[in-house]
Amino acid sequence: DYLVNNAGIHYNSDVILSFRTEHSTPQGYDVAFEVNYLSHFLLTEKLLPLLENSARESPRIIQMASSFHWLSDGSDMAVMGNNPPRASLGDAKSVAQRSRSYANSKLAQIMHARALSRRLSADQSKVRVVSVCPGWVGTNVAGGSGFNKILLQTIAYPNDGFGLASTLDAMFLPDAGRDEHTDFFVNSAVFDLLGTAIENMGLVGKKWPAQTGFRDMVCWVLAVALLWTQKFASGAQYSTSSPESYNNTVQEELYEWSKGVVSEWL
Asked: Whose C-alpha in 66, 155, 196, 206 is 20 to 30 A from the C-alpha of 46?
């Protein structure tokens, strides 16, 4: 049995540029963070007992993440005391945070996968959790009409074709999700270049790249370049996510905060 946490949104330029206007759900959270992360967290908690009772050898939970999570340095994930993580705030009114909402939500998904995996392993559960990056795929995530839709449907992977490759590998390869070396898939080898560039440029482990927006700019430029080059090295494969995504402390804090947030619906 499989649970694929796929539903997601990405803000268009109109939403990003109207950052001075609150953009939150009825619960007060950033819309993208709640749709892309918290809703999946809740669904996973509710369906996990069914997966654990599955007759299959290794039921899977698949997180539809993104290599674009490299844009986030993880600082927006920190839970400070009783304060929610900055990434969750719908009233931040910050252009930087609004433009980082998608990357933050995808980093949160990967962190959730690893925190949950530890709990499942400790309980000797047969359920595995795997995160995937499908690459650029011709979906409506960037808008259901206009230039963005035409561009993605023309250049990106088809959503009923190779865009599914990394997801299918995560679902069916026997070793997928056994440990942190096999819990993240990409759809093309070129996506490893994004992380390599961020690390080689010294943009990891320092505050200034995020504070100045330089890491954001680099990731956007590389992401657009990868749209045009991903098909030159197509092939689903294991990959390494950002160093921030392996921070166990932040993973655990985010997990516990998230479980408290969704508890009234469990």
From this structure: 66
Q: How far apart are CA 65 and CA 139, in angstroms?
A: 14
- Are 114 and 183 in contact by the 8 Å Cβ rule? The answer is yes
Token pair listed for 51: 């997966």
Residue 174 to residue 29: CA distance in whole angstroms: 37
Q: pLDDT tens digits, residue range 52-62?
A: 999 999 999 99
Handedness of CA 255, 260, 261, 266 (dihedral sign): positive
Instruction: Please tell me what DSSP assigns to residue 76.
Output: G
Q: For residue range 42-97, list pLDDT tens digits in order.
A: 999 999 999 999 999 999 999 999 999 999 999 999 998 889 999 999 887 788 88
Report which of 44, 71, 193 is spatially closest to residue 125, judged by C-alpha positions: 44
Nearest alpha carbon to residue 236 among 191, 198, 193, 203: 191
> pTM of the predicted model, to two decimals?
0.95
Residue 192 has a pLDDT of: 95
Contact predicate 105/237, CB 8 Å: no
| Residue 145 pLDDT greater than 80, yes or no | no
Collapsing DSSP to helix, strand or coil, 214 comes out as: helix
Residues in the chain, how many? 266
Q: Tell me whether strands 128-133 and 184-188 are parallel, antiparallel or unpaired.
A: parallel
CA gap 203, 218 in Å, rounded: 10
Closest CA to 119 of 61, 182, 77: 61
Residue 43 has phi, psi (to 5 degrees) of -60, -40
**C-alpha dihedral, 159 to 162 to 163 to 166, nearest 10°:** 150
